[in-house]
Specification:
Layout (H helix, E strand, L loop, with lengths): L12 E8 L3 E2 L9 H14 L10 E5 L10 H8 L8 E4 L5 H14 L5 E9 L5 E2 L2 H12 L3 H9 L9 E2 H5 L1 E2 L4 E2 H11 L4 H21 L8 E2 L5 E2 L11 H4 L22 E11 H7 L5 E10 L8 H12 L9 E4 L4 H11 L2 H6 L21 H4 L6 H16 L3 E8 L3 E8 L2
Parallel strand pairs: 3-4, 3-5, 14-15
Antiparallel strand pairs: 1-12, 1-13, 2-12, 5-12, 6-7, 8-9, 10-11, 13-16, 15-16
Helix pairs in contact: 1-2, 3-15, 7-12
């Protein structure tokens, strides 16, 4: 039997529906919602509007990079809090920035292989709740302190305590540094800016455009599946709050480089925002769609993962999208809309440059020629990570959900969602409108 591209010869995989929370910008202290709270807020209204019983859900899969100390296997916690019952298995996946997309891929494989009919999948991250840790020297000192059995030993141990022991370790900052190549994610974006001759003005112009696109989408009500968040103090959040409507190239030009001081080009203004948020989708097989008479938002055709030099991490989408399209005999012109997660403006611009570079496509992607231009008007049409934020566990699910809404409202057929992944990977997902 000939190999079928995508999820093999199993049943088709459909996206029935999806919801996400507003993405809330981190503002110097833990935000009002834990990761589990955010996932629950996205999933509860999503399930409430379905016409199948909760017991029909076969599995829950969530992506999350940094669950809190009370959120081990956060998918299971969310599943139980949703009332799905103790017999529904739930598990958590972690592939850095693409954890939410990984959850969708795992769910699709379960359905295609006949192991499940209905799966709740997505991603969540409360980046503002990333822990503040003790330095190793302080941990060692505490071990000695608790091991001391008499006053003399304790006094001797106390005499060894130094102010330097109290210096905190910011887990979020450490997590954004690749331990193999020793570069922060922002420094890898600087590498791409140098490699493809991307200027500061181009980065800032891209960032402004991202904000303008998100502002337009909010004004026109184009962000489907967005659920209102309510905190314990009675406050409510109905929109992505990192939007800067008055952003301009002149304003962004005043910001100083963050990752390569003082000569770098990447700033806080042309980088993705540190954000809290969640996105959840319901995936179903053809049998479940027919059995429960479910509407279909789209069809999940295929997913590809790729590896590359961690120091060039931001090019991950190019390495993943090329084999994805090639496997299905497609070119750029066959894709109606694209979502490439905006980790950095420089990173997206580098992907576009590499995609159109004949030498790069030949030497790195093993293509005879580029697959054709990506129309900027059909890429990230409603903004992206620079304007609405990048909660790392959730973004992969968000861009797939949003892409399906774009296809639906545009009466278009086919789309690709893709991300770069810390550690030197890329992920890409091919979807189709019904």
């Amino acid at each position: 039997m000939a190999q079928v591209p995508g999820y093999g010869t199993g049943q088709a995989v459909y996206i029935v529906d999806g919801s996400r929370t507003p993405f809330l910008k981190a503002r110097g202290r833990p935000g009002p919602f834990s990761a589990a709270d955010l996932a629950l807020a996205a999933a509860h209204p999503l399930l409430a509007r379905q016409n199948f019983p909760l017991q029909a859900i076969d599995e829950v899969i969530l992506g999350c990079v940094m669950p809190g100390p009370d959120e081990a296997n956060i998918a299971r916690i969310v599943s139980l809090r949703l009332g799905l019952g103790e017999r529904v298995p739930a598990w958590t996946v972690q592939r850095n920035c693409a954890s939410g997309m990984q959850a969708l891929d795992c769910a699709a494989q379960s359905i295609a292989q006949g192991r499940a009919e209905l799966v709740l999948a997505g991603g969540v991250e409360a980046m503002s709740h990333a822990p503040v840790l003790l330095a190793p020297a302080m941990v060692d000192w505490l071990a000695d302190w608790y091991a001391a059995r008499d006053l003399g030993t304790r006094l001797k141990t106390l005499s060894r305590l130094r102010p330097a022991h109290l210096k905190p370790v910011i887990a979020l900052l450490r997590g954004l540094i690749d331990p193999v190549v020793g570069l922060s994610m922002g420094q890898t974006a600087e590498n791409l800016a140098q490699r493809f001759n991307i200027t500061r003005e181009q980065m800032d112009a891209y960032a402004v455009d991202s904000h303008q696109r998100l502002a337009h989408a909010q004004h026109e009500g184009l962000l489907g599946g967005l659920e209102v968040l309510y905190d314990r103090d009675g406050n409510y959040y109905f929109a992505d709050d990192g939007l800067r409507r008055d952003s301009s190239v002149d304003q962004l030009a005043k910001l100083k480089p963050v990752f390569d001081k003082p000569f770098g080009l990447v700033t806080a203004g042309n980088s993705a925002q540190v954000t809290d948020g969640a996105a959840c989708l319901i995936l179903a097989g053809a049998a479940a769609v027919e059995k429960h008479k479910l509407p279909v938002l789209g069809k999940l055709l295929d997913c590809t993962w790729a590896g590359l030099d961690p120091a060039q991490m931001g090019l991950g989408p190019v390495y993943a999208m090329a084999p994805l399209l090639t496997r299905h005999g497609l070119r750029s012109a066959d894709i109606d809309y694209w979502e490439i997660n905006e980790a950095f403006a420089a990173q997206v611009l580098a992907c576009l440059a590499a995609w159109d570079d004949a030498n790069f496509c030949r030497d790195e992607l093993h293509l005879a020629a580029p697959l054709g231009d990506i129309d900027r008007a059909h890429l990230n049409g409603d903004g992206g990570g620079v304007s609405l934020g990048h909660p790392v566990g959730a973004s992969g699910a968000r861009i797939v959900l949003h892409l399906l809404h774009v296809l639906k409202r545009s009466n278009a057929k086919r789309g690709v969602a893709s991300l770069c992944i810390g550690g030197g990977q890329g992920g890409a997902m091919l979807v189709e409108a019904p």
